[in-house]
Amino acid sequence: MTALLEVKDLRVSYASGQSLTKAEGSFQALKGINLALEQGQTLGIVGESGCGKSTLAKTIVRLLEPSSGRIIFDGVDIATLRGPKLKPYRKQIQMIFQDPSDSLNPKHTLFSIIAEPMEIHHEPDREERVNELMDLVGLPKALLTRYPHELSGGQRQRVGIARALALKPRLVICDEPVSALDLSVQSQIINLLLGLQKTLGLSYIFISHDLRLVRHFSDWIAVMYKGEIVEYGASDTLYHAPKHEYTRSLLKNLS
């Protein structure tokens, strides 16, 4: 089966003190990343804070520019695309962010937040689609006139999920999607994401520092350390028989 996504020798570097959007510089945030993901599967990426997980996610979704390497989505190297040529692929790769309090515009109603991607891409039937998305993520439509601060953390993250699904993407990158939530709510969001994957045939990249959670959620796991993937394998195999010392240390911290 042809992979939906292939990342080949992906590198991101920037100068000390500069923003990550400036790709040239002396510090290597990503050091030759290689990975692949098939349609309908989940790739978990695990590692400590600062290892490059979020940089990798933002580069794949093209919020950050790669310094070099290839990002092949459905056979097309989107790392080389800009402007109008990139826009169709932005619809197909979407992202759920870590903290819904930071990622949702506090001045917009839920309807405006969920409909915004459709407005940007000139999609028709926005009201019908927003109502459909509210059903998909388990929120009552009566909330559409409310603002993010009027919701619970779990409800806000459901809104973030609805927004990510608005353009019917094939790949969704989940960047620590439950770490900002109470433990009682985390399992609800995980179960929602699993249900949506089954219903919609989604592919996920699931990023977390929690190897136990990644193992539960993922078909394959990539372990990142200091900008590199140090171990890559099937979820159960990596969990039960880790080969790299860093992976073993992550597992030891779980016990």
Radius of gyration, in angstroms, nearest whole number:
18 Å
Q: Kindly report the name of the CATH homologous superfamily.
A: P-loop containing nucleotide triphosphate hydrolases
Tell me the strand order in the biggest sheet: 6-7-8-3-9-10
Q: Would you tell me the structural class of the helices and strands?
A: alpha/beta
Number of strands: 10
> Which sheet architecture does the biggest sheet show?
6 strands, mixed
Weakly predicted, low-confidence segments: 20-25
> For the record, what CATH class applies?
Alpha Beta
| Mean pLDDT reading | 92
Number of helices: 10
Helix percent reads 25-40%
What would you note in describing this structure?
The protein is of the alpha/beta class and 255 residues long. The chain has one domain (5-254): Rossmann fold, CATH 3.40.50. The chain has ten helices and ten strands. The chain has helices at residues 53-60, 83-92, 100-103, 110-120, 126-137, 153-165, 183-200, 211-217, 235-240, 245-254, and strands at residues 5-14, 27-37, 42-46, 68-73, 76-77, 93-96, 171-175, 203-208, 220-225, 228-234. A six-stranded mixed sheet has the order 6-7-8-3-9-10, sandwiched between helices. The protein is globular and about 50 Å long.
